[in-house]
From TrEMBL:
Keywords: Cell membrane, Membrane, Signal, Transmembrane, Transmembrane helix. Residues 102-113 have a biased composition (Low complexity). One of its GO terms (molecular function) is amino acid transmembrane transporter activity. InterPro entries: LeuE-type (IPR001123). Its main location: membrane. Residues 1-25 form the signal peptide. The chain crosses the membrane at residues 52-85, 128-150, 170-189, 196-216. Residues 96-119 are annotated as: Disordered. It comes from the Bacteria. This is Threonine/homoserine/homoserine lactone efflux protein. It is a multi-pass membrane protein. It is found in: Cell membrane. GO terms for cellular component: plasma membrane.
Amino acid sequence: MTLTTWLSLTAVCLLGAMSPGPSLALVMRNTVNHGRAAGLVTAISHGVGVGIYALATALGLAAIIAAQQALFTTITLAGAGYLLWLGASAMRAASPDGLETPSDPAESAEPAAGNEGHGSRAAIRDGLAMALLNPKIAVFFLALFSQFVSADADAGTVAILAGTAATVDAAWYALVATGLAASGGAAWLRRRRVWIERLTGAVLVFLALSTAATVIG
């Protein structure tokens, strides 16, 4: 894998993680209600869950390439179509009011009184469950990794793909938890929701179109 390819993968993974959704809401909720430590543990465990999905996806795609190139081409085109749909949907975002965050505690950066005891096991459970039980994550990685897995992908490349996805995801949500522990973190995210969505959408559309052009050409 070239440095340019890896940077492209990292950028897409980062924008995917930044896009507001239930995972962001969970990290925010645990941080606001139970403190920074709970938010960080949730972020790391969510990243581990994402890494598991990413590893399974990359291994499966590598096996398909080795067995049936035509099927892989079909998956690649289908994945490009899905990324195009995701990107177009994100770019239609026009209002900052739709961020999925907890309705009552998101304005505060301090843990609610009496709730600091949210244990590490509960936070680990929350993060893993959110990642592993969300089928949209599996579909996203199938679409995404079909753009980056090649016929000569070896174990090292697969490890880089999965490791990058897990690390970027955990790092982003750890940053969210740390920011929320300081003042104004939730408000900062809400104010920039529209631009995060639009930037994510533009990158996904570009990736989808360039991949489809390469396969068709």
